[in-house]
């Protein structure tokens, strides 16, 4: 069976899947023209989660695939780093230079001097994760991927014992949908598809809990705008009211929870008045929310990644999931708490990632602390030698990583060699020594799994790539040849071979999956709703988590151990002030949520995305603007101990007083001084298992005078 090239001479519609870093992993129908180019991109109506709906970004993907600024040739830096002077180079010469740089680094400092660095620019298993096979084969420095999911995953699993939950399609069967910590209209459009279906067909109420009036808040029947990092206080008050007013399902908790009596006693002093003072919500708002979910058995709590951007995010996520347990919501179709379905996908990735070659003595470096790693921080380096060579795929740390000034300073080191494999000349690529052009998702085969729903999906190659660009897998295999490890398991296989080898549990190969398009992996109701017990050994939901000993999906290795102020985490669900609180010198909290037409740093190259977003701005409440002599459109300075940047002011009551909102992520050069918002974000590790608190920053604000 051959799927690589469409039938030229006629227009066809082919299946694929969105590759970008989003829980929705939308199933796509893509029009392939008679000339072999892609045209319209639509959501697949045949897929029960995508349900025919996709975001505007991906619907216009042809503009990205055929963008005039797309990288088309390997490039070698000429002149100083970051100077923008490049010369063309052949693929053979580029790969030779990368391999030679890696050998030189290893000879001088040992194998850990090389740090392959990647993330989720593609969620394709083959193109994203093959870099780890090279890492393990060569014993290069490990990669602790902390930046996005860790805090939220950890908090959820502390309660449930497993990273799975109710079928996300059950939102359409709910009588109340609580969208908590995610701007779904902008970032997970399919959540809104199923929530609004419940509202239309069942009269369901939609509650949205967030820190500013974003597009999802505007769709809510009840919108709760709280102070950043105070979600756990709201959850505690809701549970206290549930115990107080008889909404708590005591029989359910007696069977399925570890210490409901202890929780009730703990919450006795954490009622709505207490929570109102912390969250900034009114007592009436908290009471109304508690009454709504308490009286509505089929309440579906859709818990998002906003939790993971705060230093107390694990505690907040655990507290929010605990609400569903106190109410017994898990018992009902259309009820329970869902965050991510990562535990249901049984892919065999040992060969793909080279997991049988892992050496536990090799250090792991935290991706969130790349700035500290590259500037020689001994703790970040695990008290070992420097990193002097890197290959970067699928990510743009010079733009998206915290402590941006440290990151850039590290990349500008004369003794650091960096190769970047990319689609466009990103902020990171601009600082590289070698830049390689990469294929896009319709130009290669890959396999995807969806954290936000329950499908494994095939993304087959639909069109031929430009002759001068190469896949991630090609780069890894070619480097393996030059570095003497190509004979080891996993190297030299095609994408289709890798896909088939990941699927032994499903008794299907690449060709079979090409026929089926996707696999629905959703467990039966009893498993998804924990009707036979939760995922901990005692089958109980843990109101009293063991914050440092509980297994979690991305727990740091024993050589690193628990991170951050884990000793300060509470015994029961509670508000814990390990966030970056305001002080006299820094009276504002700053959050940096995503803009609607960008996806991390992807799509920022698109003209229509930039026109839609306008320019980098900071939302300021009118009271704060007046107090600081700022009017709409003024240039203001934001700063803290990490640095300062200038932005244009947008005066709006969408932001709370005392909270500044800067949507992005904009490229660094879109800002007035050529530095992006992550100059202001911190990389100190989040308790208990790490993370990046990108929405958790204190800053000062002043009107710019020049």
TrEMBL record:
4Fe-4S Mo/W bis-MGD-type domain: residues covered: 11-69
Keyword tags: Iron, Iron-sulfur, Metal-binding
CDD domains the record matches: MopB_3, MopB_CT_3
GO molecular function, one term: molybdopterin cofactor binding
Entries under InterPro entries matching the protein: Asp_de-COase-like_dom_sf, MoPterin_dinucl-bd_dom, Mopterin_OxRdtase, Mopterin_OxRdtase_4Fe-4S_dom, Prok_Mopterin_Oxidored, YoaE_C
A Pfam family matched in the record: Molybdopterin
Entry's family note: Belongs to the prokaryotic molybdopterin-containing oxidoreductase family.
Protein's name in the database: Anaerobic selenocysteine-containing dehydrogenase
Organism (species): Mycoplana dimorpha
